[in-house]
Here is the input.
Amino acid sequence: MGRQSGICCYCGEVRSFAKAHIISKTLFKDLFKRYGKVHLLNVKDIDGNNKVQDAFFDTHILCAKCDMSFSLFEDYFVQLIRGELLATGITSRIKRSDLGEYMVDKYRPVNYLHLRFFYLLTLWRCGISQQSSFTSVSLGNDEQKIHKLLQLKEPGDYKDYATVLVSFAEVDDIRALTAIGPANAMVGVIPIIVILFDQWALIYCLKKQVKEWFFQYALNDSGDLSVVIFKESFGVNFLNQLTHNQVHLRKADVFGE
Ligand SMILES: [Zn+2]
Here is the structure.
């Protein structure tokens, strides 16, 4: 059976819809490889009849051609967080700063445009998707602005939709938690969206009234990348403050297929 057709949110043409992943499918592949097939559950569904999901996808947003065209940015990001760019000497860690509750690693050089477009793309797809896990993510006028930047391949000002890459690598039990949703409780950073896979999260800032530290670590066009690494319970507390739409991730064998 063919897929449904409709207007692709990216190119605007009437085409067959693809199975478009909101969060790059490759990120889930790594997760599945490490932990086996997993369930992704909204907190509110945790006692209900849970379905196995093939990551988060939406079959009513993008045509196959547009969906495919994003893989360059997705592959770059995945290579980076897997450490493949480090292993091949393409990029290096140039500094680690221990700031008590968190550390900051600095990498150089990174492909700013690839990362910036990956960040924008992920944010935009979260915004346009009607998939239940993303219905609380609403970008308003920014949805169109981000779409335009992506189409024109213009990075825009990095302080618009500033994004910080966060790692919870030091926290063992955080692996059991995947959090997606807008947040409004973080002092000075309003609103934000957190997308966390395994130990990785992207924190977005949609407005400019944020504390200095946020911009200090946000991706910018200097060619450096800062990764904020939360330690121990600070990471868990931080997440709890940020999210009111937590999604738990559990191995399939807990629930059965
Ligand atoms: Zn399209």
